[in-house]
Design a protein that fits this description.
heterotrimer, A mainly alpha (462), B mainly alpha (111), C mainly alpha (134), A: 462 residues, mainly alpha, globular, C: 134 residues, Methane Monooxygenase Hydroxylase, Chain G, domain 1, 6 helices, 0% strand, flat
């Protein structure tokens, strides 16, 4: 419970700092201190050294997997603020409030990783979503940002409605909001799974696919990711998306087998559709930001494998996938924010001007594409291996590998632009040494995890 | 009254809400339709709460089964209020910049 | 067919036209009462048609202009804040009902809720959201 309480408290503290302190850099340092304390508190709880305990009346249950994901999300946010904190402060006039909202989102994240009743799932999703609507529209004078915020808000509220209907139907069948449900219920005289529960959980699943931008519920994603200020896009495309997947995994594990044999058709279909739409559309993009938006859909397709396999390897895999995908995407976005031109041509000749930055971006891109010796390779490998373990058809794996190969094309266009094209890659400001250092740390982390992914899993079990 | 009346009423309201979201152009009206969806869920939850309560009453005299759904309704109301605050603020921000709340004009992001 | 049966079994109350009799009476009475009152007051009330009476009522102040015109964003901000703070009060109802049973634990929980509330309130005051004059 540490993460939930400490993040909320730091959110409120930052709120007060916004009118007590008038120096924008102080906000950034406060946020970094807050995130470090939060990380420490969560690790202390993970190893059962110190934790705040309240009786949550079975609404929440804390286990190693969720707590470890909390640590990953908080650490990723810490890295994110260290890397692009200056750009967050610069988005608008309310610098402190952006950090406030990020803290509140982390509170929602830790609710989702530890929910034990659908009420907490609903609250967690909303605590994540509502601050995100604000962050999306935080560039108030920019029409694109306004539009993205309105679109995101209407879509998000709509999917909230679906989610609530799902929860209500499931409650009608089961009689409580518990994650486990009651399992069997009298249905037309025989003891079977109720029609209402299946319909409800299907609606719940659909609305969470909305949030995770899995096809065919992905259509808001490119517009919103493009319109939102780039710093916040990187946050919502990575940490938030991974969290929603954790929530889905918890739900589907608790009510496993509820959808019956049709599940073996629905989910593979969704996976293939998500991979196809994400990868094929990304090929035609000229803007790197929009390409990353589509690539985030494509990566969601791989994360869906963890839902399908639903075994320990899938759980390990989704953690590794979150780390690999988050580090790489946050890194690329941090560089993208500093570029004047967001198209591929804007990156022309970056390698000559900023060799270290270009090299880091190259590592990030390689990791996203899943090239061996980077974390992205093992992430994809674990996803596919876990699916095989659960008895996936070969055709599904072939499709996944083919689309991974397609993704190599558009990822390598970025490397090609940086290294093999002449041009003046212009930046708003010269990257500072600390920025370059952080980027290099990201790249090194990705490579280390790419050589020895078990380093990460050790923390999951020991 | 039989529970299915409530289910049909709630589902009808919910469908009206969905159709409104999908067809109306005015952002405020779309938003009102979303609120309608949330409120139909409230109705359904209260009906189910009553149903489970009545069912449990036959076995135990002072049961509290079914209370949780009514509490859930409170949470839905509060979250909906928070959403209203943010949503209206976004719509006002949009209106200040474009002097329109028509969602069909939201095409600047389409390439 | 099957699942409606399942739902049928649960309902315990009977469902006949007699059950609706009180509602019918109430409907007739409500409509009749309103119609009578409006009719009688129109018939026997004095009628003085002056320009003042045709104006919209604004608590005694002279009305100014059309109601449908853009107004200061301050109104909007206050209205939104009102909605937020108004709806949160909903959580006090369950507490008020279970005041005795919940004891000190419940009291501290509500105290925490109110203090978070207060933090938000201090925040909006300090940010000048309620300041009327610029």
């Amino acid at each position: 419970m540490n993460a939930i309480i400490v993040s909320a408290v730091f959110g409120v503290l930052m709120m007060f700092a916004s009118f007590l302190v008038n120096n924008k850099n102080v906000y950034r340092y406060l946020a970094i201190i807050g995130l470090s304390v939060l990380l420490l508190a969560n690790i202390l709880e993970t190893y059962a050294i110190w934790s705040i305990k309240f009786d949550s009346f079975l609404q929440l249950s804390f286990e190693r997997f969720g707590l470890f994901f909390n640590s990953i999300a908080i650490a990723a946010t810490l890295f994110y603020v260290l890397l692009s904190g200056k750009d967050i402060v610069r988005v608008g006039n309310y610098s402190a409030e952006y950090f406030v909202l990020i803290f509140f989102i982390l509170c929602g994240v830790s609710l989702i990783t530890s929910y034990n009743s659908l009420l907490m799932l609903f609250l967690g999703i909303e605590i994540i979503s509502i601050p995100l609507y604000i962050l999306t529209g935080s560039d108030k004078k920019n029409l694109k940002s306004n539009e993205a915020a309105l679109k995101y808000f209407l879509m998000g509220a709509f999917s909230t409605g679906l989610m609530l209907m799902g929860i209500a139907l499931s409650y009608g069948a089961v009689g409580n909001f518990g994650l486990e449900g009651r399992g069997v219920v009298a249905f037309g005289g025989s003891m079977r799974v109720s029609f209402l529960e299946v319909a409800g959980l299907l609606l719940l699943f659909i609305s969470m696919s909305f949030k995770a931008s899995a096809a065919p519920f992905h259509f808001w994603t490119p517009d919103v990711y493009e319109g939102a200020p780039s710093v916040f896009t990187s946050f919502m495309a990575t940490i938030v998306k991974a969290t929603v997947f954790i929530g889905m995994i918890k739900l589907l594990e608790a009510r496993t087998g509820i959808f019956g044999p049709t599940w073996q058709i629905i989910l593979p279909l969704m996976i293939v559709l998500t991979l196809a739409i994400g990868n094929i559309t990304a090929v035609f993009q000229q803007s790197v930001k929009r390409m990353l938006a589509y690539s985030s859909i494509a990566q969601a397709g791989f994360m869906l494998f963890a839902l399908w396999s639903a075994n320990d390897m899938g759980r390990e895999g989704i953690l590794l996938y979150s780390v690999a995908y988050t580090l790489a995407t946050v890194g690329i976005f941090a560089v993208l924010v500093k570029m004047k031109d967001y198209t591929f041509d804007g990156f022309n000749g970056l390698a000559a001007k900023q060799p270290l930055v270009a090299a880091s971006v190259a590592v990030f891109v390689l990791s996203l594409a899943g090239i061996p010796l980077t974390a992205g390779f093992f992430a994809k490998y674990f996803m596919l291996a876990s699916a095989i373990k659960s008895g996936a058809g070969v055709w599904l794996l072939v499709v996944a590998v083919v689309f991974a190969a397609v993704s190599v094309y558009y990822y390598f266009r970025l490397i090609q632009a940086m290294y093999f094209k002449e041009g003046e890659a212009e930046m708003f400001e010269q990257p500072t040494n600390s920025f370059k250092g952080m980027l290099a740390i990201f790249a090194v982390l990705l490579i280390v995890l790419g050589i020895a992914p078990s380093l990460l899993f050790n923390y999951l079990y020991f | 009254m039989p529970i299915q009346y409530y289910i049909f009423l709630a589902l009808a309201l919910f469908s009206i809400g969905i159709i409104g979201v999908l067809t109306r152009r005015n952002a405020i009206i779309v938003f009102m339709c979303i609120e309608l969806m949330l409120n139909s869920v409230n109705l359904l939850l209260v009906a189910f709460s009553k149903m489970h309560h009545a069912e449990a009453l036959t076995a135990v005299a002072d049961t509290t089964i079914g209370i949780d759904a009514q509490l859930f309704v409170f949470f839905i109301m509060v979250v909906a209020a928070a959403e209203v605050a943010v949503g209206l603020a976004i719509i006002v921000m949009m209106f200040r910049n474009t002097h329109s709340v028509d969602v069909h004009f939201l095409n600047r992001l389409k390439n | 067919m099957l699942w409606t049966n399942f739902l049928m079994n649960v309902s315990t109350a009977s469902n006949t036209a007699v059950d609706y009799f009180p509602i019918g009476i109430q409907l007739i009475f409500a409509v009749g009462f309103v119609a009578t009152m409006i009719g009688v007051s129109a018939l026997i009330g004095p009628k003085r048609q002056t320009s003042d009476k045709l104006q919209s009522f604004e608590s005694g102040i002279e009305s100014v202009g059309n109601a449908r015109q853009p107004m200061a964003i301050k109104y909007f901000l206050v209205a939104i804040l009102f909605v937020l703070f108004d709806v949160e009060v909903i959580f006090f109802y369950p507490y008020a009902i279970n005041f005795r049973d919940l004891g000190w634990n419940g009291f501290f929980a509500v105290l925490m809720f109110v203090s978070l509330f207060l933090a938000g309130f201090i925040y909006i005051i300090k940010k000048g959201a309620l300041k009327w004059e610029d």
